[in-house]
Fold this protein.
Amino acid sequence: MMEGLDKIDLKILRALQEDASHSAAEIADSVGLSQSPCYRRIQRLKEEGYITRIVAMLDRRKLNLLTQLFVQVKVIRNDQQSLQEFTDYIRSFPEVLECHVILGAYDFLLRVVVRDMEAYEKFYFGKLSTVPNIREVNSFVAAWEVKSTTSLPLKV
């Protein structure tokens, strides 16, 4: 059990991860609570930062964003100012859905979603390659998704 969370809290979090569009009454039903206590728990979980935001998950394919790439980036300098400048650029690119600092041969791993390879080429040459301090970029096209989830592995 995680500190500050009981089994009911974890059940609520799991239910919200599966479908946050359910009402407090529906979630209460699924976790064995009445609506008011469930609603109060959800509010507490938000206030305490367990729930950071509630969003709609969109189908990128239906929106004609058919190409997903994983891009490794190696930078020239790892000083704080250079890294801050790099991350500021990356945060401004809507094509970059995720950016992770990684250990190993590269410094960053990006998940990029675009319409097609022509759009990636435009992104690469028009945006990514203009970012200062980049030494090397290595791109991998995802052929298909085996698993994609935003649900954390919560044990109840």
In short: Helices lie at 7-18, 24-31, 35-47, 80-91, 117-126.
